[in-house]
Design goal:
This protein is α/β, with parallel strands linked by helices and 380 residues long. The chain has 17 helices and 13 strands.
C-alpha cells in the first residue's frame, strides 16, 4: 500500500471527461494500483476516478454568471485543499485553462509534478499564458500538430501524442445501418444538423438550422435531415423547437459519428465536431454564434483567421464558416447548396479533409499520454 501512487485529475468539460476517462483506463492497464481522485464526468467515474466535483457543474460558454462563478470558486477551494491533505504524486490537468492553470500554480508550490493534457488555445488568444505554463507545468501533452512547435520555441517541455478522436472514431467506408435506415437504401439524400453539446448552443443554433432545413426542402428533392444529440442534450430540450414543424427530420441519440458518416454533408456548430467530420471525410458548413458581449470581447482578443479547427489545421477554408450575424437560414442554405451541387468541390473538400486527418497523427493518444504520466510518477 505504501507504494501505491495517487493522481489528482481535473477536467471541466465533456470532451475533457471523455479524454480523461480513456487516459485513466490506459494508465490502469499498465498499473491498476494507481488511485485517482478529481473532477470530471461519467467517463472518468466509469474509469475509476473518485469524483470530488462533477464537470457538469463547471461547463460554461462565454462569461460565467454569479451562481456559476461561486460554484467554480468552491470547486477550486476543494481541489486545492486536496493537494495538501491527500498529497498526490501527480496532477493531470485537461484543457479548462483558467481553472487548471491556477491549479497548476498551487501544485507547483507543493512540489507536485504537473502534466497538462490538451493545451489551452494559446495560438488563438492570450498567447502570454505560455509564460505561465513554462513556470507551472512540467510536461505539456498536446493533441494538435502545430502546438508542439509553439511550446518548443517557448522552452516548454512538450510531447505531441496525436488526437484522441483517432481512437474513438471507427472510420468505415462501408454503408452503415443509419445510412440504410434513413436513406431508404439511397432513395433519400441525408443532411446532418449538429447544433452543439450545450443548452446555450441548442437555443442559439437549432432554430436557425431548422429554418435552413425548411429552405433546403424546396431546393433538394428527396432530402431527409438527421439531428444527432450529444450525450449532454436530451430530447426534451430539442422537442420544443421541433413542435409545429413539418420537416422530413429524425432526431437520433448516441450515434453522432454514424450520422456524420451517413450524411452527404452536415451543418455543425464550431467545435470538436469539425475534426470528427474531417476524420470521417464528410463535407460541412460551420456555424458559430455566442452572446454579443462574448463575441465583442473575443473579436478583440482572438488572433486566428478561422474559428473551426479543421480550417486552422488545414491553413485555409475547407469548411465555410458563418459567424455571429452571418448565422442566418438564407446564408447557411446558400453555402450548403454550393457544396451539395458541386461534385468537383466535394471531391476537393474530401481530399483536404483526408490531409487534415493525416495531420492529426496516429492512433494511441491515450496510451502515449499514459506513458508520460507514468514517467512523471517515476513508473516509466
Amino acid at each position: 500500500m505504501a507504494n501505491k501512487k495517487r493522481v489528482l485529475i481535473i477536467a471541466g468539460e465533456a470532451s475533457g471527461d471523455l479524454y480523461g476517462g480513456n487516459l485513466v483506463k490506459a494508465i490502469r492497464t499498465v498499473d491498476p494500483s494507481i488511485y485517482f481522485v478529481g473532477m470530471g464526468g461519467s467517463h472518468m467515474r466509469e474509469a475509476g476516478v473518485r469524483l470530488l466535483r462533477h464537470a457538469e457543474e463547471m461547463a460554461v460558454v462565454g462569461l460565467p454568471g454569479g451562481k456559476r462563478l461561486f460554484t467554480i470558486f468552491e470547486a477550486f477551494r476543494e481541489l486545492k485543499a486536496s493537494l495538501v491533505h491527500w498529497r498526490p504524486d501527480l496532477i493531470i490537468l485537461i484543457d479548462y485553462p483558467e481553472f487548471n492553470l491556477m491549479m497548476a500554480g498551487r501544485a507547483k508550490r507543493h512540489g507536485i509534478p504537473v502534466m497538462y493534457y490538451v493545451s489551452p488555445q494559446i495560438w488563438a488568444w492570450r498567447s502570454k499564458r505560455i509564460d505561465t505554463i513554462r513556470r507551472r507545468v512540467d510536461r505539456m501533452v498536446v493533441i494538435l500538430p502545430f502546438e508542439k512547435k509553439l511550446y518548443q520555441e517557448a522552452g516548454v517541455k512538450v510531447s505531441f501524442v496525436g488526437h484522441p478522436l483517432l481512437d474513438l472514431i471507427e472510420v468505415n467506408n462501408g454503408e452503415g445501418s443509419i445510412c440504410r435506415q434513413y436513406s431508404k437504401n439511397g432513395l433519400y439524400k441525408l443532411i446532418g444538423l449538429l447544433p452543439g453539446s450545450r443548452s446555450s448552443e441548442i437555443s442559439k443554433l437549432l432554430p436557425v438550422m431548422l429554418d435552413t432545413a425548411a429552405i433546403l426542402v424546396d431546393m433538394i428533392p428527396n432530402i431527409h435531415f438527421l439531428v444527432p444529440l450529444a450525450p449532454t442534450i436530451s430530447t426534451d430540450q430539442v422537442n420544443p423547437y421541433l413542435n409545429g414543424r413539418n420537416l422530413p427530420l429524425t432526431v437520433v441519440k448516441n450515434s453522432t459519428h454514424e450520422v456524420i458518416r451517413a450524411c452527404e454533408m452536415i451543418v455543425a456548430a464550431s467545435g470538436t465536431v469539425t475534426l470528427e467530420a474531417a476524420i470521417l471525410g464528410t463535407p460541412l458548413v460551420v456555424v458559430y454564434k455566442v452572446n454579443p458581449l462574448t463575441y465583442w470581447f473575443g473579436k478583440r482578443l482572438v488572433k486566428v483567421n478561422h474559428v473551426a479547427l479543421v480550417n486552422i489545421i488545414a491553413g485555409e477554408t475547407v469548411a465555410p464558416e458563418l459567424i455571429q450575424h452571418q448565422v442566418t437560414p438564407e446564408l447557411i442554405a446558400r453555402e450548403s447548396m454550393k457544396i451539395f451541387n458541386d461534385d468537383e468541390r466535394k471531391v476537393w473538400i474530401k481530399g483536404r479533409l483526408r490531409d487534415v486527418r493525416r495531420e492529426l497523427g496516429t492512433p494511441g493518444a491515450s496510451e502515449k499520454a499514459a506513458a508520460i504520466a507514468l514517467e512523471l510518477m517515476g513508473r516509466g
